[in-house]
Each structure stands twice: as structure tokens, then as C-alpha cells.
Amino acid sequence: MSVTEKISAVTEKIIARSAASRRRYLDRIEKAASNTPRRAKLGCANVAHGFAACGPTDKALLREGACANLAIVTAYNDMLSAHQPFERFPDIIREAARQAGATAQVAGGVPAMCDGVTQGEAGMELSMFSRDVIALSTSVALSHQMFDAAVYLGVCDKIVPGLVIGALSFGHLPAIFIPAGPMTSGLPNDEKSRIRQLHAEGKVGRDALLEAECQSYHGPGTCTFYGTANSNQMLMEIMGLHLPGTTFVNPNTSLRDEITRAATKRALAITACGNDYTPIGRIVDERTVVNGVVGLLATGGSTNHTIHLIAMAAAAGIHLTWDDMAELSAAVPLLTRIYPNGKADVNHFHAAGGMGLLIRELLSAGLLHQDVKTVWGSGLDGYLVEPRLADSGLTWTDAAANSGDRAILRGCDEPFDRTGGITLLDGDIGRAVIKSSAVPKDRHVIEAPARVFHSQEELQKAFKAGELNGDLVAVIRFQGPKANGMPELHKLMPPLGVLQDRGFRVALVTDGRMSGASGKVPAAIHVTPEAADGGAIAKICNGDMIRLDAVEGRLEVLVDAAEWASRGNATADLSGNDFGVGRELFLPFRAQVNRADEGATIFRVQ
After folding, report:
1. How do residues 44-84 score in pLDDT, each as one tens digit?
2. Taking the alpha carbons of 483, 225, 120, 524 in that order, is the dihedral positive or negative?
3. What CATH code is carried by the domain that includes residue 531?
4. Residue 463 belongs to what domain range?
5. End-of-domain residue from the set 167, 194, 218
6. Which distant-in-sequence residues (6+ apart) come within 8 Å of 317 by Cβ?
7. pTM for this predicted structure
8. List of residues 6+ apart from 474 with CB closer than 8 A
């Protein structure tokens, strides 16, 4: 299957731009590869430490040194609903490895914070940086060099990107990501949003709000809206790092357990000890990265991945840019309506045909590279199947050929929109992105006076005081990675949504982030350069007319050019961001972090 001219052209640009760094990366992982277990070259004391706590069977296999040993890198904790199911996975994985004549060990744990818990709190200022901590933790886990492949247990916002970056630093090792699956459907997401807005207006109390939230987030598994966590899971499948069709199977089911066993055995089958060696550094190439972007656009996925995908690609020596994403967005249709782009959740998407049907449609339209490496041992056409339990055990059957619900999932011949869900904005304020697929068409162009704030709390205070009744563009600045770690500004959506529902023309412009589930109100986010890095967003004054145009891709201030050029940048006292809730430990990160359009990471393409 060949790709369209536009997909091919963007891919070739990325290949050319990345040629030197990608070559260096591949050279490094080739030097690290070995067709015999690396632990066999460790000293006797080293390797004895490595299996000292194992049971007799595993210890004998590891001592003999010929079998494959699988690393388990886990983000388990039982506070995150999405990660709580992972508590059982190591035992399942170890037993499946023994059945295959191999061994598995928990190599290490990585932190996993829940943005849902820290939204609007100081702890959210650690969220973006937690991704790089997870990458570092993954490298520490694998540094013992006891392993021939790894499986990664992670789901949520920064966790999967961090695990991918860490895995790519050990790119000579095969890697499979094993999902836990979404929780069953609870209170509909639009009803949850309605209660939040009523609470913002003071029309319902905390008890009603808490009850709605509890009905939404009610059990083990990923939150069911299509935010960053579920966008992560879509990416892992469309990039060939999950087993096919396994992304949105609910946790704690017999099918989910069999998928975990199958993923374990597949990870062992693709080590250098066998005949199907498939290291992750070879899987994640320029074509795979383009496939990930296409999947993100076709599903209207999380805007956080305009940052994460750049950082993930960089870890494999690949230079991805916002311009690449913008070019692809113009060529990729929107095929799904999942909240916040619609009313359905990911369980409904899965039931309508899910990933297999989505990939089939994109392949048929020439929008995905079929000829990529995957952990399944095929090209991407091997992902047109889904798992089933039969009397004989786990089997794969053909994925749905047609959508079970065209209000949720459609083909390329009848898309919800002819272009992708994310738009790049450019102008004298800087560069930004907007999740245009979540915004009504009549709100794609907003022109209104600026109201400038330096925190989301300031805006909330003004809203409660009745000062925001009118058309406005809320400018929330000093929220970028250098200023305070680039938190998600979750508290902004309910009041801005209320103002929009009152009939006002409202938009948001910020150098911070929004939730992967944000929508409804037009939001130009990730403004780059940020205010704390000399960005022009720091020049905006109250009353300046701002034009956000998601049709033409423009973000402009309608101020006389001479006056704009003569203005100095506003400053802000950021010392309050330096301490408390562990923030003092992240001062070096804030000093070193690069721009949002470079991945907002402390790492660089080498």
C-alpha cells in the first residue's frame, strides 16, 4: 500500500532533516546489540546480585545464562485508576515467561502522577517534568544490563511518553507496551462538564460536583474520555508497539489477562537470542512517527502530543516539528467523535470498530505507512485484527469492516471534517496550537479585547467578581516550562465555558497547557516563545484587540506596528513557583528545559 503524495513528502522532509542524528542513533544501538545475553559478560558477583532473590527455577535458568530474561518496567501505583490493574501484571508476566522457558524480573518502577488529582494545584507544576524523570528512571531500571527485552506497564499522560523516551535510550532492546485498558463507562462526559459549569456559577454545591465526579471516575482503568492517556494508548497501537487490537480492552477480564500473557511471549520471541530480533530503536523510525501524528490528527487526540511526540521522536534521533504536524493536519481527515470532540467515550469507540477499523480506513486512503516494523512481526496491515477468547485460548479475528456507529467512527469517504483535529497558529504573538476539532465552527475565529492574567486563580477571582461579562480573549501568561513547568490550566475551562454559554465571544491564549480533554472554548495554547523566555505574549496589555483565526492559522494582536515594536515585556514575580510540593528539586529542569515546540524537554537530539 503506497501513501499519498503529501504523506510521502512530509516523511521525506523529516528523513532528510534527521539524517545525521538518526544515523548516529542507529550506530549507537547497533554497537550495544548482542546475540547473546549481555549479563553473560558481567562479572560473577555482578550477575549473582542480579538473580540472588529469584526462586530456584528462575535462578537456575539465569545462572545457566542461555535463556532470555525480560525486564518489567512498571508505573504501578494504586492511586491511579489506570495503573491499579498493573498490580497483578508482574505475576502474570513471570508465569508466562516461565511457560516460554524464560525468565522475567521487575527491573524498576517509575513515578506515575495523576493530573486529575493535581489539576489546579501546585503539584501540577511537576507534571510535565515528570515525563523526563520517568525517562531517567527507565534508564536506571535497565542499566543493570541483565535483560534481553523489556515490557512497559504504563498508561497515563506523561508516563507513556517518558517510558518511550527511556526505552529508546536502550534502543537495542526489543520493547512491548502492555496496556491495562479503560474503566467501564460511567456518567456521560458532557453531563460531567455540565455539572462543573453549574458549580462554577454557584448553582450547585460541592456535594453535587463530587457526586458527578465520582460517577465519572468510578473504578479501575483509564478515564474514558479521549484525553492524553487514551491518546497515548492509540499511539502505541498505531506505532506498532502494542499487540493489535489490545488497546481498549477493559481491565481485570480474562481477555485482558490473556493479552498480557501473549505480549510477554511475543516480547521474548523478538529478542536477539532468537531469529526475529526487533529492537524498539528500529521500530520507531520516521515513518512510524508520521503514522503516530496521522493517528493523533484523525482521532482529534490530545494537544499534549504536539509536545510529547517531538520529544519521543528526538529520543530516536528524529527531528519532528510543528510545521510537519500542520502539513499533515491539512491532509488527514477527522474520523472520530470521542469526548471532548463528541459525546462518546473510548468504550463506545472500541465497540464501533475501534483501532482495527481506524487503521484499515487510514491505510486504504494511503494516509499511513504500511511498510513499517512492528512488535507483531508484520507491517501495519497486521493490525487489522482484534483479539478474541475461544475454547482454544486467545485468537485474532478480522477487525470490523464497517463502523458500528457512524456518529462515533467513520471512513475516509465521509469524515467528520476534511482536515485533522489540531491546527498550528502563527503571528506576532508567537506560535501556538489549537484543538480545532473540539471547537464549534462558528468559534474558529475570535476577535476580542485582551484580559491579561498571570495565573488561573486571578481569572477565577475576576470571574466570580463579575468582571468578565463581555467578549474577551483571556491571556494567561508565565505558564510555560521555564516559568513554572507548564502546568495544565484546568480551572480555566468552567468559567470560560460559562461566559461562552452566555453568548459572549470568548477565547484563551496561553503559554501553558490545557487538559488533553479540553475543548469547547477556542484555546491557543503552548504559545512559544513563552513569556519567561522573552516571548511577545509578555507585551500584551489589557484592551489590546487579539485575533485568533483557526481557519487561516493566525494569532495576532491588532496594535499599531510601531507601538508594538516599541513596547517592553511585562515581568512577573515567579519566586512563588520555586518551593513547596517538591518544586525546589525541579529548579535545574526549569533552567535547562527547551521550548514547547522543541518538546519542552531537558533532553536534546544527539
Report:
1. 999 999 999 999 999 999 998 889 999 999 999 999 999 99
2. positive
3. 3.50.30.80
4. 423-598
5. 218
6. 18, 21, 22, 23, 24, 25, 26, 605, 606
7. 0.95
8. 450, 451, 453, 459, 468, 492, 496, 506, 507, 508, 509, 510
